Amino acid sequence: MARPKHVHTTKFSQDALTTLLDLIEIKLQSMEVFDREDAREAKILAEARCEIAAILGLVVTPVTPPRQISTAASRMHRT
Q1: Which domain holds residue 49?
Q2: Using an 8 Å Cβ cutoff, are 25 and 60 in contact?
Q3: 29 within some domain
Q4: Rounded to the nearest 5 degrees, what angle is found at the Cα of 32, between the Cα atoms of 76 and 14?
Q5: Does residue 8 belong to any structural domain of this protein?
Q6: Long-range CB contacts (< 8 A, 24+ apart) of 13-16?
Q7: Residues of the chain by 3-state class (helix, strand, coil), percent to 5
Q8: pTM of the model
Q9: How many CB atoms are closer than 10 A to CB 77?
Q10: In this predicted model, what pLDDT tens digit does every residue of 28-51 receive, in sequence order?
């Protein structure tokens, strides 16, 4: 039976965690999802946001989903 990996956790100040939470929210709100990679990144960021909020004891509401790229913009992106 394999041993679980030991996870080393560093203590962060409340100010540092609040700043990280703000940065994650800004990134999520400004993202445009072009492909699966972007969708995966958005999911990871949303999960990190929930984790940090839980550590801070905050209740977070869902951020608006990342914007899907319009068909016109995707055509421009390919050229």
Answers
A1: 34-58+69-79
A2: no
A3: no
A4: 150
A5: no
A6: 14/56
A7: 60, 5, 35
A8: 0.67
A9: 10
A10: 999 998 999 999 999 999 999 999
